Amino acid sequence: EAQVTQNPRYLITVTGKKLTVTCSQNMNHEYMSWYRQDPGLGLRQIYYSMNVEVTDKGDVPEGYKVSRKEKRNFPLILESPSPNQTSLYFCASSFYGSTQFFGPGTRLTVL
Amino acid sequence: RKEVEQDPGPFNVPEGATVAFNCTYSNSASQSFFWYRQDCRKEPKLLMSVYSSGNEDGRFTAQLNRASQYISLLIRDSKLSDSATYLCVVNQRDSNYQLIWGAGTKLIIKP
């Protein structure tokens, strides 16, 4: 089944404790992206990747890191999470310029 | 001015009625247009792409007006299951195929 998977789905952590949210897709998509969604603000892009070893900042990259060592994986890293990073996070993938497929989301709470 | 703007709603509509949403975009270089649907706390899913000549998929009709830079979504004979948030999305090829998302219009269908 074609899909984008994210883990964990839910995470409660404390300020400053490094965490990684994994994202994997099995559709051989070149393009992958991370979004955060907050009430009233819609989806905001954090980072995106055009292909392996090619990543670039989106609209709200501060406090986040990503890597793209393999085509299928695009982990999101929060080196020192803060409460303002409490949000719903989505990973997505697509072929260039095509419709995006989303993972089920990760609900993160930083205390 | 936001790049993609939508009326946040909510639109409260009786079952069986017809409802229409508009979405305006600011970048005239925008290439592709989509409507996504998002159920509460779930991932966005593609509802339909929007083509220059307009297109229909069952009860849903999408229109594009490049001169006025807006797209629209019409839902006929609305069902309770149509209750969701509808997201307007614009693709700009001149920005690495980055998708620009509207904040969404919430639709509530009432029995």
Condensed summary:
With 111 residues, chain A is an all-beta fold. In chain A, 0% of the residues lie in helices and 51% in strands.
Query: First CA to last CA of chain A: what distance?
Result: 36 Å
The radius of gyration computed from the alpha-carbon positions of chain A, rounded to a whole number of angstroms, is 13 Å
Indicate the multimeric state.
Answer: heterodimer
Find the count of extended strands of chain B (DSSP E, 2+ residues).
11
Main β sheet profile of chain A: 7 strands, mixed
Tell me the number of helical segments of chain A per DSSP (H or I, 4 or more residues long): 0
Q: Can you count the beta strands of chain A?
A: 11
Number of helices of chain B: 0
Structural class of chain B: mainly beta
What structural category do the secondary elements of chain A indicate? mainly beta
Overall 3D geometry of chain B? globular
- The run of helices and strands of chain A is EEEEEEEEEEE
Binned strand content of chain A: over 45%
Into which percentage range does the β-strand content of chain B fall?
Answer: over 45%
Spans of chain A of at least 5 consecutive residues whose pLDDT stays below 50 are none
Integer-rounded radius of gyration of chain B? 14 Å
Distance between the termini of chain B: 36 Å
- Mean pLDDT metric of chain A: 94
List keywords for this structure.
heterodimer, A: mainly beta, seven-stranded mixed beta sheet, four-stranded antiparallel beta sheet, B: 111 residues, mainly beta, six-stranded mixed beta sheet, 11 strands, 0% helix, globular
